[in-house]
Amino acid sequence: MTALPPRSAFPTGFQFGVATSSYQIEGHGFGGAGPTHWDTFAATPGNVVRAENGARACDHYHLWEQDLDLVAAAGFDIYRFSTSWARVLPEGRGPVNMEGLDFYDRLVDGMLERGLKPALTLYHWELPAALADKGGWRNREITRWFADYTHVIMARLSDRIWSAAPINEPWCVSWLSHFLGAHAPGLRDIRATARAMHHVLLAHGRAIKVMRAGGIKNLGAVCNFETALPADASPESEAATNRYDAIFNRFFVEAMFKGRYPEAALEGLAPHLPEGWEDDLATIAQPLDWFGLNYYTCKRIAAAPGPWPGFAEVDGAGPKTEMGWEIRPEGLQEFLTRIARDYTGDLPLYVTENGMAAPDRLDKRGLCDDQDRIAYYAAHLRACQNALAAGVPLKGYMAWSALDNYEWALGYEKRFGLIHLDFESLQRRPKASYHAFKTALER
Ligand code: FCB
Questions:
Q1: Of the residues 126, 200, 353, 405, which should be mutated to test ligand 1's pocket, given the most ligand atoms within 8 Å of the CB?
Q2: 238 domain-assigned
Q3: Does the structure show a pLDDT above 90 at 1?
Q4: Domain CATH number, residue 391
Q5: What is the pLDDT of residues 14-34, one digit of tens each?
Q6: For 133-145, what is each residue's pLDDT tens digit?
Q7: What would the pLDDT profile of 217-232 be if each residue is shown by its tens digit?
Q8: Which of 123, 140, 342, 398 could form a disulfide with 17 if both were Cys (CB 3.0 to 4.6 A apart)?
Q9: How far does residue 21's CA lie from ligand 1's centre (Å)?
Q10: According to DSSP H, which parts of 91-215 are helical?
């Protein structure tokens, strides 16, 4: 049995947390939330396992007190959550659903009552369907709609939140959803992709400006990173790996911190970016107070025939999670070091997501002994310790996720939680990994 490194093995003040997101846990069928592009994507055959959607999810909308009780009882310091745009503005713009805003108000108060720091993300993927109808992330206007939504949320919550980040994982919002077609809106179009990549960054910059103007403190960004490793020693695969890395690991962070796009990405994207994109870079590169990294896995990349970007993912030999994601903890250490060295300098860094899906089963006593997940967390927490020892200003670590939840295109099949969910009875049962964190955080 593996133990997690104890709190005392981290610097004083190092914060531990868990992360969740609105559509994945709340139950979007409740409380007057408007339809989202995830509802329509899921309703289209072939997109989501068993065509499942977030209409009920974990019913966190009604059971949130239980959930926050469990998170607090494990000794976590931070609760990273998101507000749903479509819950608060069912049409994406215009009339506010007060019931939705009241829900987040109670939720934030509930965190504070339990000693949890509310770490808010404003967008974790549930775009209101009415805005998807207008072109969603392809339409530059979304950057204004998002700024308005930011204002609505912040007018109500900013006096109590601990930190705020506009958009979770810009790569997923743009490339995964508009180039690979794996997430809503399920497009496979390079022009749509280039526009979404740019607009998601401009929306980030404008939202930060809105919040700064409102005097809101502790503003950051959350990007995901995947180590790109050449699948073989050929120069072609090395070049393909560089293109993959430029799109996945450099495009967003380079725009945010250096106000430019990497050449290896512009090679293919430049003809499809909206006219005058260069003029937006200054708005995108707003000063930030912290930066968050989501890290899960690495990819082996080979050159592939066909149009740009000409790369393909090749299966790696290493151990994998139930998602098929190769486990490579040293990648987390490498990214923490690399991001601090190349982009963020002394800025506080946080691991804002890290975790694994496992084929969790309850035993006869209703216990889930997820030792593989504990080993994954232990290895990645050690990677954080190594980064700290190398001088990286890492200030905290958040596990994905508190609860088993709606894992997007994979429906309810893939379980990432520290707490097991019976999606029939909605019963919550802490897994062994939950207890492992509780023990580590006490020490
Ligand atoms: C991240 C997402 C999160 C969850 C995990 C497994 O990319 O931010 O919602 O799906 O992956």
A1: 353
A2: yes
A3: no
A4: 3.20.20.80
A5: 999 999 999 999 999 999 999
A6: 999 999 999 999 9
A7: 999 999 999 999 999 9
A8: 398
A9: 9
A10: 98-113, 129-132, 142-157, 170-171, 177-178, 190-213
Give me the active site residues, please. 169, 353
List Cβ<8 Å contacts ≥24 apart for 415-421.
415/322, 415/357, 415/358, 415/359, 415/360, 416/355, 416/356, 416/357, 418/18, 418/74, 419/67, 419/70, 420/360, 420/362, 420/368, 421/58
260: left (phi over 0), alpha (psi -120 to 50) or beta: beta
In the 8-state DSSP scheme, what is residue 306? Answer: S
**Residue 118 belongs to domain spanning:** 7-442
Q: Is residue 193 part of a domain?
A: yes
Residue nearest atom 9 in ligand 1 by C-alpha distance: 21
Residue at 1 is within a domain: no
pLDDT per position as a tens digit, 94-127: 999 999 999 999 999 999 999 999 999 999 999 9
Query: pLDDT tens across 161-177, in order?
Result: 999 999 999 999 999 99
CA 278 to ligand 1 centroid distance, Å: 30
CA separation for the pair 179, 419 (Å, rounded): 33
Span from the CA of 129 to the centroid of ligand 1 (angstroms): 21
Evaluate if pTM is beyond 0.90. yes
What is the number of structural domains in the chain? 1
- Name which residue sits closest to atom 10 of ligand 1, judged by CA: 407
For residue 355, give the ligand 1 atom closest to its CA.
6
Atom of ligand 1 nearest to the CA of 407: 10
pLDDT in tens, 295-340: 999 999 999 999 999 999 999 989 999 999 999 999 999 999 999 9
For residue 61, the CA-to-ligand 1 centroid distance in Å is 20
Choosing from 177, 405, 408 the residue with most ligand 1 atoms within 8 A of its CB, the one to mutate for a pocket test is 408
Is residue 205 included in any domain, yes or no? yes
